[in-house]
Amino acid sequence: MISTWKETLMPTLETERLLIRPCKMDDLDACHGLYLDIGWADKEASDSDNRDRRRRWLEWTVRNYEELARLKQPPYGERVAELKSSQQFAGLIGLVPLLKPFAQIACFGGLSPELATYSAEVGLFWAITPRLQRLGIAVEAASAMINYAFGTLKLGRILAGTEYDNLASIAVMRRLGMRIERNPHPVPEWFQIHGILDASLWSRHKGHAGKTR
Q1: Helix or strand (DSSP H, E) at 168
Q2: How far apart are CA 77 and CA 181, in angstroms?
Q3: How far, in Å, CA of 48 to CA of 38, rounded?
Q4: Contacts with 20 (C-beta within 8 Å, 6 or more apart), sequence order
């Protein structure tokens, strides 16, 4: 039985090659560099403005761990994935809230954009530094998060979203055993590809794909 709010904090997760730990303010340079490297920084803003925005995000993220735990809410927010062998920053991984018109997807009802309502789901986010991509790190980190989400949080399903042309992320979704669903409508333009993984299928998938520690 959970007796204190601190017991609801997500612990550091460990896999064969990775530690997945809470972000710290000391991670600012690495996080800022990651968003620059993968092209997610605001191209119309200066480097100093982008860095300041990343700093504010990091401050919020660090504070959010404790506040969400006190409220007994899902542990939303990114965490650092680092290589155990060198403590090298490998990227970010985390659970995020998704509020989207999922009713447009066939498995959620297949409604038209005019009739589809929005619903909230728990999403899985990852961003791996380019020099360490194509080494299976995204799958390894995501598998650890999924194990925690289904095993400890007892979630029924988890989703991940991306764009039509992001073949690398779609490949990660497939390796995780996710069912790939495509928005059949052109709107909203940001609602494109989603991978869906049910808890009931995860154990079966792990038996084929192997386990993280």
Answers
A1: helix 167-175
A2: 24
A3: 17
A4: 12, 13, 14, 79, 80, 81, 93, 141, 144, 145
Q: What are phi and psi of 77, to 5 degrees?
A: 125, 150
| Geometric angle at alpha carbon 206, from 200 and 207, rounded to 5° | 105
Which residues, given as ranges, of the chain have pLDDT below 50?
A: 1-2, 210-213
Using only the alpha carbons of the chain, give its radius of gyration. Answer: 17
* Peptide linkage before 22 cis (omega within 30 of 0): no
> pLDDT tens for residues 57-87?
999 999 999 999 999 899 999 999 999 999 9
- The answer to whether 35 and 50 are in contact (CB under 8 A) is yes
Q: pLDDT tens-digit profile of 31-57?
A: 999 999 999 999 999 999 999 999 999
* pLDDT on residue 201: 86
Architecture of the domain spanning 12-22+76-209: 3-Layer(aba) Sandwich (3.40)
Nearest to 12 by CA among 70, 87, 72, 73: 87
